[in-house]
Amino acid sequence: MLKALMTAGVTGVLWTGSVLAQQGSMPADIQPISLTRLPALTRDALDDEGKAAYDYIVGDGPAPTTGPVAVSLYSPPIARVFSDLNGYLRYNGVLSPRHTEVAILVAAWEFEQQYEYSAHEPAALSYGAPQAVIDTIKYDREPAGLSAEETLIIELGRAVMREHKVDSALYNRAVDLFGRRGVVELVTVMGDYVMVGMVMTTIDQQLPPDRPALLPAR
What we know:
Layout: H1 16-21, H2 48-57, H3 68-72, H4 76-91, H5 97-110, H6 114-126, H7 131-138, H8 148-163, H9 168-202
């Protein structure tokens, strides 16, 4: 059973040869397979609890070597929770996949999480997010000429993560567009990717060699 965290480009692959060739450009503490400070885990290296979590999340799918699944397996209970929460929000929540991906991009941009952003920009485009929405987030522009929903997602994300407050007018617009449940799930999507992004930043997750860095440097 391959869970949601391993989609949209976040599944790792054994890049050993090409990764070793580029190690000179990476920090000295980055491991060659995981591309993080943590060694890559295999199922055989896990205890019984870890194996059960691995089977629950990965099943017969390819072994994850980079990204959220790979690192979450260091804590099997967290791996299960991450997988269930992420799978619900991205594929079973009340938001459309397009709006979910836009919310993820907002969170990844605010947290400057290159790995997450570079995985989800193509996903947002594939679900129909216009290039103008991507560019508004990517280049920190004021929303102009966008849909009411995507304008709201960008403004709400910026208010929460920059100003740490949401005024009544913005909140009421959010409820009008997404409903009360939708607002809770929208903000939870952003929080999910900030939470995982904190872990990814701490372990210094690098990009696989086939993934371009899409988040501009600041």
